[in-house]
Design brief:
The complex is a heterodimer. Chain A is of the alpha/beta class. Chain A is built from twelve helices and 14 strands. Chain A folds into two domains: 3-181, Rossmann fold (3-Layer(aba) Sandwich); 195-323, Rossmann fold (3-Layer(aba) Sandwich), CATH 3.40.50.920. Chain A has a seven-stranded mixed sheet with strand order 3-2-4-5-7-6-12, sandwiched between helices. A five-stranded mixed sheet of chain A has the order 9-11-10-13-14, sandwiched between helices. Chain A has a two-stranded antiparallel sheet with strand order 1-8. Chain B contains twelve helices and seven strands. Classes of the chains: A alpha/beta, B alpha/beta.
Chain lengths: 324, 329
């Protein structure tokens, strides 16, 4: 297959799943005639019709609520949040209704909620956030966050086929910057499995989404100093691959958790606690987290750049751990 | 009026079953056998039963109650024993003790789905159920209940607007019982009639006497048939009153006694039965037999629920996601 962008991988996943299963449909703002604010649903309404590609009012509560209701009746909706930041408008519906269907009532609610997260595009505070932590602590919704085109396509397919709610967090910075050769045949990436993106023995970086490339940049610099970094791309936040995390830490004995969301109460705090609890004896240094400052993402480029994680912040943390 | 004598007596049965079941729940509550709060629909049984009776469950219609619509899910087929088990937090309740009171039901199979507590959230959900029905080429209609207070929420507005612009087969009943807990409607909204909220979204709004069982049935039936024919959403305001407080612990001292007494005199069940007798549709003996039957069923349901086991606490961590087989057991 030709080189496929991260964005087109998402479009392909939706298109292929909609062709494969007539229960799958897309619902959201500007997803139909416009093809999505970023073009993620381009061509879908032409191929599948307005009945299965539904343009909605600006109503995140109704989008997620209606999708959830439809899912209870056997449909497989994909509810798009135009920017994942707007998922906060649907937070109540998602954590109180969508997430509780199976645990409280034994009902399957196979809905996918997807949308673009992340900064680096000067989008300002309401178009740049990363929401995984706010859903981690309200059980019942799986959370996935791909960083490659391959994983974006495979995880979205897995999410659509999953019988429980899945929050699919894509990254807008990656949409057109990432291009990969993808398999022609159908494939899925299983939810809950990490990918050891780079093998190493001196230091583990646990990360996901756009930060995997920041980790790679740092790893390249460290390689010049003879330091071998292992990069664990989690891909799934809930459930997460605890085995992969612990195995890597057991091997390298030093660990950085890198995520784009702010530090305090971020997903990294959970992984750090898990490592401290279960791999304490393997650690030769404290667990470090590299994350955004605890602030809303600011707009002006120098402010945003300073607030977000970057290669140099990872290098500083790495050198501290290696010198410990 | 297209209701046969059998149907009219059946409506009376559901009215009496609702009231009798709730009176039993009060008794159990006073014995501390009901866990947590108890919410009665005393005074509102009429509109709950009448509206739900207008659906066609054979076509897959689904009703969504709020806390004062127990009668509606009894009409849809909910079992009294299941309801008592829910209130007693029993391990073999429909939610296996995980959820309380009438928060249960599978819309795909049961004809009803209980609410979650965040008011208004069920409106978009019911719109989604209607949407799925249309996508599946079915003719099902959804009926959602909301209160005067609940109709203030963002979720209500988004759901109503979405359902209306999509012309979904849905009817929304706004129960205007003048109070949301302790808050009178004058503090809830400046709208003169709650049915006027339909104007804002382009839906059809109607107001009807909520304590007139046949009037509620007729208005709902017409709305349901319009919905089924593709004519869109109706917001049907039913005027009624809560003869007790928000819950058993609330003595509603904030409501003037004269108002409560006035509405007690307009009780829907009394009016309905008086009319059946006046029209010679039913005899006193037939109505008494219906009440006896309701009592027998509530007695049997109580026995079953009291004998049921509590859940095993060790199961609290199971059944969150598919795969552990918990719900298949």
């Amino acid at each position: 297959m030709a080189e496929t962008t991260y964005l087109d991988a998402i479009t392909q996943a939706m298109s292929e799943e909609m062709a494969r299963d007539e229960r799958v449909f897309l619902i959201g703002e500007d997803v139909g005639l416009y093809g999505g604010a970023f073009g993620t649903s381009k061509g879908l309404i032409e191929r599948f019709g307005a009945e299965r590609v539904i343009d909605t009012p600006i109503s995140e509560i109704a989008i997620t609520g209606a999708a959830s209701g439809a899912a209870l009746m056997g449909m497989r909706p994909i509810a798009e949040m135009q920017f994942i930041d707007f998922i906060t408008c649907a937070y109540d519906m998602l954590v109180n209704f969508t997430a509780t269907n199976r645990y409280l009532y034994g009902r399957a609610c196979p809905i996918v909620v997807r949308g673009p997260a992340g900064g680096g595009v000067h989008g300002g505070p309401f178009h740049s956030s990363n929401p995984e932590a706010m859903f981690m602590n309200r059980p019942g919704i799986k959370i996935v966050s791909p960083g490659t085109a391959y994983d974006a396509k495979g995880l979205l397919k897995a999410a659509i086929r999953d019988d429980d709610p899945v929050l699919f967090i894509e990254h807008k910075y990656l949409y057109r910057r990432i291009k990969e050769e993808l398999p022609a045949e159908d494939y899925i990436v299983p939810i809950g499995k990490a990918n050891i993106r780079r093998k190493g023995k001196d230091l583990t970086i646990i990360t996901w989404s756009a930060m995997i490339y920041v980790a790679e940049e740092a790893a390249d610099v460290l390689a010049k100093d003879g330091v071998s970094v292992e990069i664990v791309d989690l891909r799934s936040i809930i459930p997460f691959d605890e085995e992969a995390i612990l195995s890597s830490v057991a091997k390298t004995n030093r660990c950085i958790i890198l995520h784009e969301a702010p530090l305090t109460g971020g997903a990294g705090a959970e992984f750090a606690a898990r490592i401290a609890e279960k791999a304490f004896d393997y650690l030769d240094a404290p667990i470090k987290r590299v994350a955004a400052l605890d602030v809303p993402t600011p707009y002006s480029p120098p402010l945003e750049a300073f607030a977000l994680p970057n290669r140099d912040k990872v290098l500083a943390a790495a050198r501290e751990l290696l010198a410990y | 009026m297209d209701l046969s004598k059998e149907q009219l007596l059946e409506i009376d049965y559901f009215l009496r079953l609702t009231r009798t079941l709730e009176e039993r729940l009060v008794a159990l509550f006073r014995q501390s056998k009901v866990i947590g709060g108890l919410y009665r629909s005393l005074g509102q049984e009429g509109e709950s039963v009448a509206a739900a009776y207008a659906l066609d469950y054979a076509q897959g219609d689904v009703v969504q109650p709020l806390i004062r619509n127990l009668g509606s899910i009894l009409v849809a087929g909910a079992k009294p024993a299941d309801i008592i088990k829910q209130y007693m937090a029993k391990g073999d309740s429909p939610t296996r003790g995980r959820e309380l009171n009438i928060h249960f039901g599978n819309p795909a199979t049961d004809g009803f789905i209980g609410q979650i507590s965040m008011l208004g959230d069920m409106i978009p959900v019911m719109a989604g159920i209607a949407l799925a029905g249309r996508m599946q080429k079915r003719k099902l209609v959804t009926l959602a209940f909301i209160g005067d207070g609940g109709s203030s929420t963002g979720a209500f507005w988004e759901g109503l607007n979405f359902a209306t612009v999509q012309k979904l087969p849905m009817v929304v009943i706004v129960e205007n019982n003048a109070y949301a807990y302790s808050t009178p409607t004058e503090k809830q909204t400046a709208a003169k009639r709650l049915a006027d909220k339909a104007v804002g979204v382009g839906a059809r709004g109607e107001t009807v006497d909520g304590n007139d069982v046949l009037a509620v049935y007729e208005a709902t039936k017409a709305a349901v048939e319009r919905a089924r024919a593709g004519e869109g959403v109706t917001l049907l305001e039913v005027l009624t009153f809560r003869l007790k407080g928000h819950a058993e612990h609330d003595n509603q001292s904030y409501v003037p006694q004269e108002i409560i007494d006035e509405w007690r005199g307009k009780d829907a069940i009394d009016r309905f039965e008086r009319k059946l007798l006046e029209d010679a549709t039913a005899t006193r003996a037939e109505l008494d037999e219906i009440q006896q039957r309701a009592k027998r069923e509530v007695d049997a349901a109580t026995d079953e629920a009291e004998r049921a086991p509590m859940p095993d606490g060790h199961e609290a961590g199971l059944g969150l996601l598919a795969g552990d087989g918990y719900w298949e057991r």
